[in-house]
Amino acid sequence: MEVEAEIDRLPIDLLANIFVLFTSFTDLAQASGVCRKWKQGVNESLAWRQNLSFAGWKMDDDSTARLVCHAHNLTKLHIPRSRWGCQITDAGLVRISFAKCVRNLTSISLWGLTGITDEGVVQLITRTRSLQHLNVGGTFITDESLFAIARSCPKLETIVLWSCRHVTENGLFALVDKCLDLKSMNVWGTRVPEECLNNLHILSPALQIKV
């Protein structure tokens, strides 16, 4: 009881400052389950984070969306394929799209997520307003996603389409035509013909196209 009394005297701000230092999402989940006050501290620590990376963690739709929805000040979101097999699907991206932070995200990485399609990507992208860097390499997106990016991301500067074998020159031209700040595009492993890349260079001479 004496230990609990000491814990009760810790202010929420101090608890949140401690939890910000946690790098393990498992530890955060366990801390959140200690008591109501610790849960509030964990939630506040997430609200302070500007960068959230799930690299190396086995995440699912529910756990990922729940964490992102608490990260109100987030600007960088990294959800790559993990070595244990990330289980993020379109359902997870749809839930994430309703998070308050999405409008302020400047960087999103969905690299290698084979469980997502245009459905989830379009839903997420159309709710962004500040996106500058996007990595959707190794996914099965098509031109539908590229058209949505072109419409919704006028500030886009870099995009990675590494091994996106279902995108075509139509989608790439839409990006270059609408995203006037675009500086770099990685299209290694796509099926886009060399003639298309040459035409993109004519349309945007300063664009760096990585093949």
Automatic annotation (TrEMBL):
User: Which GO BP terms apply?
Assistant: SCF-dependent proteasomal ubiquitin-dependent protein catabolic process
Quote the PANTHER family the UniProt record gives.
Answer: F-BOX PROTEIN YLR352W, PARTNER OF PAIRED, ISOFORM B-RELATED
Where do the TM regions start and end?
none
- Domain F-box: where? 4-51
Q: What species is this protein from?
A: Sphenostylis stenocarpa
Q: Which Pfam families match?
A: DUF7885, F-box-like
Task: List, alphabetically, the InterPro entries matched.
Answer: F-box-like_dom_sf (IPR036047), F-box_dom (IPR001810), FBXL15_LRR (IPR057207), Leu-rich_rpt_Cys-con_subtyp (IPR006553), LRR_dom_sf (IPR032675)
SUPFAM superfamilies assigned: F-box domain, RNI-like
The Gene Ontology CC terms held by the record are: SCF ubiquitin ligase complex
Gene3D superfamilies given in the database record: 1.20.1280.50, Ribonuclease Inhibitor
**Protein name as annotated:** F-box domain-containing protein
